[in-house]
Structures are given as C-alpha cells and as structure tokens.
Amino acid sequence: MTSFVRVWRRAPTFAVIALPWLCACENDVAVQLGHPPPAGICVDSDPCSRCARALYFHGPYDRVEIPSSPLLDLPQDFAIEAWLLVKSYAGGHGVLNRWVPNEGDIELTFGTPEPLSQHQLQTVEQVPSHVLASWGHVQAANWITVVAPSLPSLGTWHHVASSYGGGSFRLYVDGSLVGSMNATAPVENPQSTLYLGATARYQYSFDPAQGTRYWPPIDGFIAEVRLSSTNRYTADFTPEPRLSVDEWTLGLWHLNEGDGSVAADSSPNKLDGAITGATWTAAPLRPPAP
Questions:
Q1: Are the C-beta atoms of 146 and 274 separated by less than 8 Å?
Q2: Exposed e or buried b for every residue in 235-263, given b needs 16+ CB within 10 A?
Q3: Does residue 30 sit within a domain?
Q4: Buried b vs exposed e over 173-193: b needs ≥16 C-beta within 10 Å?
Q5: From CA 198, how far away is CA 277, in angstroms rounded?
Q6: How far, in Å, CA of 100 to CA of 104, rounded?
Q7: So what's the pLDDT on residue 197?
Q8: Which value, to the nearest 10 degrees, does the dihedral of the CA atoms of residues 179, 158, 258, 130 take?
Q9: pTM greater than the 0.85 cutoff
Q10: What is the C-alpha separation between 277 and 62, in angstroms, rounded?
Q11: Domain that includes residue 239, residue range
Q12: 22 CB burial (10 A radius; 0-12, 13-18, 19+)
C-alpha cells in the first residue's frame, strides 16, 4: 500500500432594486431579466428574484449534525460532493467532516485554522492559507489527499466533488478535474457524527469553561451534499444543479427546506441532520443544467 502525507456580514435579506426589469439577491448582485417582472413585489423564490432560501453558514459553531451510523460508512470506491457558494475566504474552512482522532478522517474542506504536525500538514505556515482539499485517513498517520491549485471564485455557486476508485483519488470543481493522487488503500470509517460546516474537535480535553471546541465552517452557503458508494466521477462531467438519489446514494441532503431546524436526508437511509446556528437566507439560484 502506498501511503501519503496530508497536504492541505451576516447578510441582510435580499431587497428588490427600485429599477425596472431588475431584481437583486442578498449578496447585492442584480439580475437583468429581459422581461417585466410580474405584478407586485418580488419575493423569495419567485422567478423574478432569481433567489431561493439556502442554508448560510457564518458563525464559528454553525453546523448540521448527522448522527453516527454504519450506513454512512464509505466502501473501497466512493464519492463525496456538494454545491458551495463562498462569500469570503476570511471565514472558516469546514464543509464536510466525519472523524475520530487516530481512527479515521474523511473530509471536504478549505484548509485548516490552526497549526498541525508535519505528518498531517506539509507546510511551514503557522496558519495555512485556505486551500480546497479533500482527504481520507487510510491507516495510522497516513492520509490520501488531493488539493486544488486555486480557489473557486467568491460569490457564485460551484460544484465540488472528490471521487475515489480505479487507483486514484480525484478532485473536481464544476465538473473539471483539478487534482488527483494515485492510491488504492480503503479509507477508515470512524463511527462518529457527520458534520456539515463546523466540526467538533474531540482531540481537545473537554473544558467546562469553554465547552466543546469547533473548527469553524466556511463563510457561505452549502447545499446538495451527497455521499455515494461508487467511484462516481472518472472523467470530467456536467454537474447536476439538483443532485438525485440512485442505487449508490448513501446520503443526500439538499439543504433546501427554507425553514426549520432539520436537514432532511432524501436517500432511503433517512439520516436526517440537526441544524445548529446556520440560517435560512436568500441566495442566488444555482445555474440550470445545459
């Protein structure tokens, strides 16, 4: 087996601009429509708004917690993916994480907010700048890791996916391959909570004065998170704006409920998550399929 070193304004609700033929989303991006809007005021999710409510992660503890289940275990071949809209890279880093110290670590992330040992993070920076990466723990102190050479642009939706199988671990942005690493070892599956956004770091001793410590989430929106029990992406592809359930789907959280504190799992496993801190906020619609 080959082993690898791990490399690595809450916004106001959108307002309608008082100009003909224009509407705007909460991130101040106006949309030219090309035809008059319907009578009345544009509201969230109306076609003229070009917006819909999505789950916004901003605070240091904003997260979705999916309870631990063997149904979340990733087999030899797997894929993890999500649609993301990052508002600022000055925020946190977390997108998806399921881990237990020294037992397993499966992650989709934009970096790490604190120094790590050299066997975990190959860098001399005290606090590494954000990088888009995905990794899986394969055995003690060994990870398979793939890193993107650049960051996705801010303020717009991007589809991010990592897919493992056929001898390599690959990372895609908007359906285009941005990095890969040769590997064949299966990842270890920690029996732990699956976190979307902020992640509890249980390597720290519990301090009653501080409570559980977390690594913070990205400053932005997360949607359409899917875990698959297959090497789903073996070549460049066109991402689905709304991901679907198929025979390989272990979990699929659309994160499009628009209100409430439950993130429903659309897969047959029905592994619903609890929303903490993250808020339902108007966001631009994802691009439609070609």
A1: no
A2: eebebeeebeeeebbbbbbbbbbeeeeeb
A3: no
A4: bbeebbbebebebbbbbbebb
A5: 10
A6: 5
A7: 96
A8: 60
A9: no
A10: 4
A11: 55-284
A12: middle
Give me the pLDDT at residue 198, please: 93
Whether 12 is covered by a domain: the verdict is no
pLDDT digits (tens, 9 = 90+) for 74-92: 999 999 999 999 999 888 8
Residue whose tokens read 């110290």 = 101
Q: In b/e form, how buried is each residue of 198-213, taking b as 16+ CB within 10 angstroms? A: bbbeeeeeeeeeeeeb
CATH of the domain at 214: 2.60.120.200
pLDDT tens sequence across 140-171: 777 788 888 889 999 999 999 999 999 999 99
Name the residue type at position 203: Q
Count of all residues that appear for the chain in the document: 290
CA atoms of 35 and 240, how far apart (whole Å) = 27
Number of domains in the chain: 1
**Residue 221 lies inside a defined structural domain of this protein:** yes
93 contacts 74 by C-beta, under 8 angstroms: no
Q: Is residue 248 part of a domain?
A: yes
pLDDT at 40: 33
Please list the ranges in the chain whose pLDDT falls under 70.
Answer: 1-50, 112-130, 203-207, 210, 289-290
Tokens of 194: 């699956």
Residue 190 has a pLDDT of 86
